[in-house]
Design brief:
The structure is a single chain. It contains no helices and ten strands. It has a seven-stranded antiparallel β-sheet with strand order 1-4-5-9-8-7-6, with no helix packed on it. A three-stranded antiparallel β-sheet has the order 3-2-10, with no helix packed on it. The termini are far apart. The protein has a single domain, classed as Metal Binding Protein, Guanine Nucleotide Exchange Factor, Chain A (Beta Complex), CATH 2.170.150.40. With about 110 residues, it is an all-beta fold. It comes from Thalassococcus profundi. InterPro entries: DUF427, DUF427_sf. This is DUF427 domain-containing protein.
Length: about 110
């Protein structure tokens, strides 16, 4: 893996909430740091309530990670459009994030260490 991206196990337990509801909690999350950007927590799919996520047609391409697919979060109060992304077929250098999801932290969506 290049020095541009670092992936390591995230210490402790991490939780993600949307609209006040817990979408998941994990002791197996990964912390990805890319360049000078703040780290992003990637949750294993097995630890997320996938029934609350709806896959969208949106995608983006990262030259270091590959093509990201997106999901919206359906909460009781609203839908958070394209608030979740996943590299379902990541580049070899970041293969660890396969089967993981990252969440766009915003008003109503939180990712926290507990």
């Amino acid at each position: 893996m290049s020095d541009h991206i670092k992936i390591r196990p995230a210490e402790g337990t991490w939780t993600v909430r949307a609209g006040g509801a817990v979408l998941g909690e994990s002791n197996d999350a990964l912390e990805l740091t890319e360049g000078d950007m703040p780290f992003v927590i990637y949750f294993p799919r097995k630890d997320i309530a996938m029934a609350l996520l709806d896959k969208t047609d949106h995608s983006t391409v990262c030259p270091h990670k590959g093509t990201a697919t997106y999901y919206s979060i359906a909460s009781k109060s609203r839908t958070y459009e394209n608030a979740v992304w996943s590299y379902e077929d990541p580049k070899d250098a970041v293969a660890e994030i396969k089967n993981h999801l990252a969440f766009h932290v915003q008003d109503g969506v939180t990712v926290e260490q507990v």
